[in-house]
Amino acid sequence: MNEILINTFISPSRFSKYKTLANYEENLISSKQYYIPLSILEVSLRNAINNHFEKMYGRGWLLHQASFLRNDLVRKIDEAKLKLNARNENINKEKLVAELSFGFWTSLFKVPYAKQMRTYDLKRIFPNLPPKHKELIDRAKLSTRLNHIRAFRNRISHHEKITDKSEFKNIGIEINSILFYFDEDILAFSKRLNHVH
Fold it and tell me: What is the pTM of this model?
């Protein structure tokens, strides 16, 4: 059975990264434990950014592609609109916010968007950020953390190995810290759901 499972359903090339079937199972179980916190983080991030940007740039900032958006993100918006059209769905801001990738939202923390992600803005997107005298969390630090989480999320989404990866040894702490920056209750909600069997 193990040979059929590996050769037919998992594939030898994918399985080659694991020593045993037990290691493969361990990776699946580890991936499962991150699904809920990653889902909550992604949805919270896109909604928090959108809510703040609507106040700053108007309700149509996304649909009408605000002038501060660079070409790569404008392309992503156009691609999202095409996908909605292909599914015969009305293009509205709610559907567009949900259709855009996690990478779109994390890109807004990169250097070209420094003017849109000043301390004032960060405190509105993440109301529970620690005060500066306790820990300085700026746009650059958030960008690094969010893009590290995105890389981890993509490994899980593509069913890749996450166990025994030293770069992800503190990923749970990183995810929980971002959830905490939104709100203590969001972090508590994520932890509670993650322990329901």
Answer: 0.91
Residue with tokens 């909605």: 84
- Cβ neighbours of residue 108 under 8 Å, at least 6 residues apart? 49, 73, 116, 117
Residue 85 maps to a domain: no
Q: Where are the alpha helices (DSSP H) in the chain?
A: 2-4, 12-15, 21-57, 71-86, 93-99, 102-107, 119-125, 139-157, 171-182, 184-194
User: Total domain count for the chain?
Assistant: 1
The alpha-carbon radius of gyration of the chain (Å, integer) is 19
Tokens 């702490």 belong to 173
Q: Given CA atoms 174, 148, 46, 117 in this order, what sign does their dihedral have?
A: positive
Whether 23 maps to a domain, the answer reads no
Domain membership of residue 177 as a residue range? 28-49+101-194
Burial of 161 (0-12, 13-18, 19+ CB in 10 A): middle
Q: What is the pLDDT of residues 49-102, one digit of tens each?
A: 999 999 999 999 999 988 999 999 999 999 999 999 999 999 999 999 999 999
Does 62 reside within a domain? no
